[in-house]
Task: inverse folding
């Protein structure tokens, strides 16, 4: 239960790391303190030994000078108080020359080591007092000859009290540092986990159908990038949901309207409401409505088939210019009906590309049909075909009401219609441009659109796409 949330994981993990680090630092500092105390003991012991060494040689040579002897003992006592250790001086016969505490005894192996000219720094067990003591032994050398040894006995309570005092200071400091660190970790963990919780809550709301939910982005780190990506995904889902609802509404209308008309016309013929002499006229209307239904279902079927992973193109080399000419001839009746002029500019008589002829013909028909449908009467449609180093580029432009800036990013989306009204003159479910986009995507080619104002209520709209040059 402790590690149920990211916040708790971060908090307790960071706290554990800090405790481990603090423990290691404390142990290291105590070790350094211990080494420092031992080093300082050795330093002070050597300083004392230098002073005592000179006096010892003087006293040894003037044994009958009582005042010198008193001064010598006073010096030993002073150094004993300064460095906090009992001092014993031993001559080469291993007897005590002078001592601040006559109860101190030096083990023979330490005396032998010092008298051989070496310095000793050891911890020994005092069996009489049942404790460990630190003993430092320094040889007395006069004219390169060892005359004896000076031994310093440091009681354990001095080091213990020093370490305890220092440990107490460290403990208080570390407790304060840990409390401050835990507060900072708590705030940092809360700050880190809060946006993740917001994203999680937003995901749950979107999963429940609230596609307008967004998360705030107030930083520039990875979590902010995740929030931005989430918002982008939410925008896409919201847009997709709007398209789905619009598609269902459009398709329902597209299906209901012709079926209602067909049902009404047939009922009128059967019950005699429609006169015999007009039956053929109404049967032609029934045929037109069934054609609309067939076209709609075919478009939906083709869209589904094209979106499947198993769909493959039959790429071949063909004359792109000739395909365009055939599409123009097929649309000649519609062009003439609106009094449109057609301006065609090919860079060559024959232009060859690598593509699937049938699907590219469908692209041209869709774009040409849209240009005719949305052009003002008696205006001009321009078609240009030219090339760059790798591609053949097709452009078709028309003058009409055009496409609003707000609609341009969605113009190739499935089921999207710029005309939200159900104008029967502009029939369709918004699948044509989506077909075009899918076909060119399958060819790994690009399609672009721009719609530029040319007057108060007119725009020049241009669609362009690329094909691989053969």
Result:
């Amino acid at each position: 239960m402790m590690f149920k949330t990211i916040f708790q994981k971060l908090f307790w993990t960071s706290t554990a790391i800090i405790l481990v680090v603090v423990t290691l630092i404390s142990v290291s500092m105590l070790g350094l303190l211990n080494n420092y105390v031992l080093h300082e003991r050795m330093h002070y012991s050597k300083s004392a030994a230098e002073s005592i060494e000179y006096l010892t040689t003087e006293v040894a040579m003037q044994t009958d000078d009582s005042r010198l002897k008193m001064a010598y003992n006073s010096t030993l006592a002073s150094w004993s108080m300064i460095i906090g250790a009992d001092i014993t001086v031993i001559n080469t016969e291993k007897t005590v020359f002078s001592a601040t505490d006559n109860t101190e005894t030096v083990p023979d192996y330490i005396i032998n080591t010092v008298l051989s000219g070496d310095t000793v720094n050891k911890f020994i067990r005092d069996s009489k007092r049942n404790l460990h003591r630190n003993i430092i032994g320094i040889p007395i050398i006069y004219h390169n000859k060892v005359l004896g040894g000076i031994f310093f006995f440091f009681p354990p309570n001095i080091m213990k009290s020093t370490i305890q005092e220092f440990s107490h200071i460290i403990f208080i400091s570390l407790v304060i540092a840990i409390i401050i660190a835990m507060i900072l970790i708590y705030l940092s963990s809360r700050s880190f986990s809060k946006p993740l919780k917001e994203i999680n809550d937003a995901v749950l709301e979107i999963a429940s159908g609230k596609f307008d939910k967004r998360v705030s982005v107030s930083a520039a780190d990875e979590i902010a990038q995740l929030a931005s990506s989430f918002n982008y995904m939410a925008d896409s889902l919201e847009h997709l949901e709007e398209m789905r609802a619009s598609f269902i509404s459009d398709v329902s209308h597209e299906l209901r309207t012709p079926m209602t008309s067909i049902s009404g016309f047939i009922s009128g013929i059967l019950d005699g409401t429609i006169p015999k002499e007009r039956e053929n006229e109404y049967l032609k209307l029934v045929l037109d409505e069934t054609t609309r239904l067939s076209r709609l279902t075919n478009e939906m079927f083709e869209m589904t088939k094209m979106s499947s992973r198993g769909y493959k193109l039959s790429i071949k080399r063909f004359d792109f210019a000739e395909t365009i000419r055939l599409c123009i001839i097929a649309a000649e009746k519609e062009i003439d009906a609106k009094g449109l002029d057609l301006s065609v500019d090919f860079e060559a008589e024959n232009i060859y590309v690598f593509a699937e002829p049938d699907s590219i013909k469908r692209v041209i028909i869709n774009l040409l049909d849209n240009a005719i449908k949305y052009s003002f009467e008696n205006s001009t449609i321009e078609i240009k075909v030219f090339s760059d180093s790798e591609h053949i580029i097709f452009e078709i432009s028309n003058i009409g009401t055009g496409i609003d800036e707000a609609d341009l990013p969605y113009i190739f989306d499935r089921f999207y219609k710029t005309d939200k009204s159900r104008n029967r003159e502009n029939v369709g479910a918004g699948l044509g441009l989506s077909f075009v986009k899918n076909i060119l995507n399958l060819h790994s080619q690009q399609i672009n659109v721009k719609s530029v104002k040319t007057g108060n209520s007119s725009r020049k709209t241009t669609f362009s796409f690329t094909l691989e040059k053969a």
About this structure: The longest strand covers residues 131-142.
